From TrEMBL:
<keyword id="KW-0862">Zinc</keyword>
<dbReference type="GO" id="GO:0003939">
    <property type="term" value="F:L-iditol 2-dehydrogenase (NAD+) activity"/>
</dbReference>
<feature type="domain" description="Alcohol dehydrogenase-like C-terminal">
    <location>
        <begin position="30"/>
        <end position="170"/>
    </location>
</feature>
<dbReference type="Pfam" id="PF00107">
    <property type="entry name" value="ADH_zinc_N"/>
</dbReference>
<dbReference type="GO" id="GO:0046872">
    <property type="term" value="F:metal ion binding"/>
</dbReference>
<dbReference type="GO" id="GO:0006062">
    <property type="term" value="P:sorbitol catabolic process"/>
</dbReference>
<comment type="similarity">
    <text>Belongs to the zinc-containing alcohol dehydrogenase family.</text>
</comment>
<keyword id="KW-0479">Metal-binding</keyword>
<dbReference type="InterPro" id="IPR036291">
    <property type="entry name" value="NAD(P)-bd_dom_sf"/>
</dbReference>
<dbReference type="InterPro" id="IPR013149">
    <property type="entry name" value="ADH-like_C"/>
</dbReference>
<protein>
    <recommendedName>
        <fullName>Alcohol dehydrogenase-like C-terminal domain-containing protein</fullName>
    </recommendedName>
</protein>
<keyword id="KW-0560">Oxidoreductase</keyword>
């Protein structure tokens, strides 16, 4: 779990997150959850997470990782374009959750619509950090980013964060154990991969152990 925590730590560093900041995260997988945990100990005042998987969002709220959550529908309305979908989602999230515009937004999905939702949820002078890797060419609402003077920051894995990540785990500052929902012995690797591909509702992180 040091490796995904290193990604999260590097992402929050790149975000230049400050105490009192409002944080918005798309994607409640292991990386998104760890970004939220690191953001919390870095002083984030509020953390909002959105995902298509309601079970993962329930996990985030149950473990105190997110303050507010919203489940994004899998499908667009008939005839709705990608930009229209992202605009509608950001409006619904704002109206329903009554959250402030984000000082920092993390896209942990790599999905075009989620990146555009992050841009729409980010306030003037904020930062949007692209953590997830998706298609190499995507349509981004650059006009909105320009008008709000949003900095779009890319993340490529991590840099000089392994030792700090180990320290955070050893000091009990970041709980990674709760994210490990399933474990398999090394001789059961094939079963573990098959299980992970099925994406059961209660799966967050599946790890291979060696006794």
């Amino acid at each position: 779990m040091v490796e995904p925590l290193s990604v999260a730590l590097h992402s929050v560093r790149k975000a230049k997150l400050e105490a009192g900041h409002s944080v918005f995260i798309t994607g409640a997988g292991a990386i998104g959850l760890l970004c939220a945990r690191v953001a919390r100990i870095s002083g984030a005042a509020t953390i909002t997470m959105v995902d298509v998987d309601e079970a993962r969002l329930d996990f985030a709220k149950k473990h105190g990782i997110a303050d507010k959550t919203y489940t994004i529908p899998m499908d667009r309305k008939e005839g709705e374009t990608g930009p229209e979908f992202s605009a509608r989602m950001s409006t619904e999230i704002q109206d329903l959750l009554k959250i402030p515009q984000a000082n920092v937004a993390f896209d942990c999905t790599g999905i075009e619509s989620c990146l555009n939702i992050c841009i729409a949820m980010a306030g003037p002078g904020s930062r949007v950090v692209i953590v997830g890797m998706g298609r190499p060419v995507q349509e981004v609402n650059i006009a909105l980013a320009l008008i709000r003077e949003i900095e779009i920051v890319g993340v490529w894995r991590y840099a000089n964060t392994f030792q700090p990540a180990i320290h955070l785990i050893e000091a009990g500052m970041v709980d990674v154990k709760s994210l490990v929902t399933h474990q398999f012995e090394i001789e059961d690797v094939a079963s573990a991969l098959e299980f992970a591909l099925q994406r059961p509702a209660d799966l967050v992180k599946c790890v291979i152990t060696s006794s």
